[in-house]
């Protein structure tokens, strides 16, 4: 804790990454398609601590989902949860809550 001088409340970071896959043989294939990347994929959410050590991984999210949708589906993380960290501390993230189309 408090190891990042400019971000003393942060104990780590969370971000998603994707893995390209072959087009699925199962229907509906579009669930695995990332329109933004233009290929089929699955997503993984990774949490690291302030040293860059991986603390938590949750994989298998569908290709069309963004970070915020994936986070909402994850097992609870935070105080007294599966991935516990001190009260009042936060994870850094680059999640977007709404798309431009949703805001119009």
From TrEMBL:
Cofactor(s) in the UniProt record: a divalent metal cation
Residue span(s) of domain DDE Tnp4: 14-95
Keywords: Metal-binding
Highest taxon, organism lineage: Eukaryota
The UniProt record lists the keyword Metal-binding: yes
Pfam families: DDE_Tnp_4
Alphabetized GO MF terms: metal ion binding
InterPro entries: HARBI1_dom (IPR027806)
Keyword hit for Metal-binding: yes
Protein name, per record: DDE Tnp4 domain-containing protein
């Amino acid at each position: 804790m408090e190891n990042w001088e400019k971000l003393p409340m942060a104990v780590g970071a969370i971000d998603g990454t994707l893995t390209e896959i072959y087009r699925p043989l199962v229907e509906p294939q579009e669930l695995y398609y990332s329109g933004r990347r233009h290929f089929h994929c699955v997503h993984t959410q990774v949490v690291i601590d302030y040293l860059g050590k991986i603390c938590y991984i949750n994989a298998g999210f569908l290709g069309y989902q963004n970070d915020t949708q994936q986070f909402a589906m994850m097992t609870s993380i935070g105080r007294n949860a599966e991935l516990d960290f001190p009260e009042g501390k936060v994870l850094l993230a680059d999640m977007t809550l709404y798309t431009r189309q949703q805001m119009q």
